[in-house]
Amino acid sequence: MTESRITSSDSVVNSKENSSRTGGETRKSLILLISLVLPVVGFFYLSILTPLPEAYAVCSRRGAKIYTVDDNDTVVQCLVVHNTFIVDTGSLEDVSSRWFARSSFPLPIRYISRGSIIVPGLMDSHAHILEYGASRQLFLGDARSIQEIVSLVRQHILVNAEMYDDKLRSIEGWGWDHLSWSVKEWPTADAFESDPVLRDRSVVLRSKDGHALWLSKKALESIAPLPRDFEGGVIFRRENGEPTGVLLDGAQSLVKGSGPTEQDLLRHFTTTIDDALSFGLTSIHDAGFQPVSLAFFERQTAKGSLPIRIYGMRHFNEKSPDLGNLSIPILNAANGRLNVRSVKIFADGALRSGGAALCAPYFDNPEEKGFMRIEEQLLHEVIIQYLRDGWQVNVHAIGDCANKAVLDAFEDALQYVNVSALRPRLEHAQMLTPEDVMRIGRLGVIASVQPAHATSDMWYAEERLGPERVKGLYAFRSLHDNGGILAFGSDFPVEDMNPLSGFYAAITRLSQDGTSPKGSVGWFPEQRLTREQALRGMTINAAYASFAEERLGSIVPGKLADFVVLSQDIMRIPVYQILKTKVRATIIDGRPVYGYI
Ligand SMILES: *[C@@H]1O[C@H](CO)[C@@H](O)[C@H](O)[C@H]1NC(C)=O
Ligand SMILES: *[C@@H]1O[C@H](CO)[C@@H](O)[C@H](O)[C@H]1NC(C)=O
Ligand SMILES: *[C@@H]1O[C@H](CO)[C@@H](O)[C@H](O)[C@H]1NC(C)=O
Ligand SMILES: [Zn+2]
User: Fold this and answer.
1) Any atom of ligand 1 within 6 Å of the Cβ of 229
2) DSSP string, 425-457
């Protein structure tokens, strides 16, 4: 009882902060304008200004527009919120007869605008919260040339007085991709030398895929002398041996950096959460709390609440394995908004860079089978150990051999524990043999997939894997039909944060401009999911993947009131319109945290 009161008052504070940050000013001027010009209409709009009462209903004016995602995918006209909970759903008539009779005052009804719909709060099952925020401080992903990037870095320093004055501070940016530039060449340290603001400053710019660093001369000097070669990485050099300023893969670890300050972390966090709430996200699964981020989230929690729900995966360090010893899980901290009861382990690398562990050589490189990031015997042991200790075990696995090794361990764990009850997850689950697709369903393993990766990788995947094995890559429909539970994520900042990008990719298997290597029917169209299946991937299945399906993931009486108002009916409109859909409001615990209702 006491607990639920604390929850509601805290979330009210949160929602006030957030909505004044997001829509407050525009809303006020809109109200002013309307009330001056059209007093009658103005009166109607005043309802948006009055704070939401403890209990209220949200309805569509005509027809059922609330996609509940309950067991039968029921669509209803109204939902009723009391405090932080959904307490009723149904037609306007039914809800009215139940609630108007009951209360001594009329239950206020908010109507969603024409064309809008409501879906459960959206969840991202695989993302990197602080990394996204860090990547947005100086984002280079839209630049198309070296010159453009140099001027972005320069601007960044000029508008940031503190940074401008502190010449010793290293400038960090993220997201360049030389393959997207008009001239597709590797950049060099010289690029910064001709600019008076940048010359003599340490600049460290991370590539979009995180596999390369581009350094200024000063930054290179700070890590000199560089080793001749680097195991597991590359140092680009000129003919005379001088480093050019680009480091690949493992060689990136030569750059230490001072690490973010508390203020940096707070800024990164706020940046991510503001964007997330504006995209309708109400829960995020963080795919790997490094010790620094875990400590940050613990400090935030100690202050009271969090503005969004966070499900954390503890980072497992394969270099110094603290076997099964992660102390105790964090359960329902921050008024239920922070839970950390899973561990994230890396099995292999990535497909694009050739690090995905395959059982047979790459089709385009008969010498190469990729690699495991952790010795297979150790992987096997730690998976079983963590399961026996009661942790949910979430393993990054891309190649068919990596997925097989992980499933073998899950299967062997059966002799000690009820594996499906621990809901282990394959993070990415990208490439699977037909036998392993069936094993996922049989063992009750969750496939934590990123549909947007499928449409990013479809352009080169067949070249790398050949015509047979490629059929087992991103085989979402096969996974679903064999009893696999698919939880959707974006892997932001690697892909676009907007969950509708994943929804669109999963149901079309087309790039955002409507194309694919197989034409406009989509890439392996038999692997498309239905809209209902895809919506489950970002709601109830994601809730299940975080042990939260009893409280979250659908609009059902008794669950917490997390829901989103979308400007268009994504379950019916033509697919090419889906990405034009806007979020009108995001509601957590019954209170708007973005937009308004
Ligand atoms: C779903 O439909 C079945 C069969 O009509 C019914 O028995 C069940 O109660 C329904 N469940 C929900 C949650 O509405
Ligand atoms: C496990 O971790 C805790 C906390 O860091 C530490 O105190 C303890 O000694 C560790 N136990 C083992 C067996 O390593
Ligand atoms: C294992 O757990 C699942 C889910 O909690 C349950 O349905 C099943 O009965 C359990 N199996 C055994 C053998 O206990
Ligand atoms: Zn990730």
Assistant:
1) no
2) EEEE--B--HHHHHHHHHHT-EEEE-HHHHHHH
For residue 4, pLDDT beyond 60: no
Q: pLDDT of 477-486, one tens digit each?
A: 999 999 999 9
Task: Check pLDDT > 50 for residue 22.
Answer: no
Instruction: Report yes or no: 286 and 128 within 8 Å, Cβ to Cβ.
Output: yes
Position 3 confidence tier, pLDDT thresholds 50, 70, 90? very low
Please state, in angstroms and rounded to a whole number, the distance separating the CA atoms of residues 296 and 384: 29
Alpha carbons 490 and 479: distance in angstroms, whole number: 18
Task: Please give the Cα distance from 521 to 403 (Å, whole number).
Answer: 29
**Could you read off the pLDDT of 436-458 as tens digits, one per residue?**
999 999 999 999 999 999 999 99
Mean pLDDT to the nearest integer, 259-275: 93
pLDDT tens digit string along 141-165? 999 999 999 999 999 999 988 889 9
Question: Separation of 423 CA from ligand 3 center, angstroms?
Answer: 11
Distance 321 CA to ligand 2 centre (A): 12
From the CA of 540, which ligand is nearest?
A: 1
- Is the shortest distance between the CB of 3 and ligand 1 below 6 Å? no
Tell me the sheet residues that pair with 112. 60
Domains and CATH numbers, the chain: 1-120+553-597 (2.30.40.10), 130-254 (3.10.310.70)
Residues 6 or more apart whose CB falls under 8 angstroms from that of 128 comprise 286, 287, 288, 491, 492, 493, 494
Residue 167, phi then psi, degrees to nearest 5: -70, -15
Nearest atom in ligand 1 to the alpha carbon of residue 71 is 13
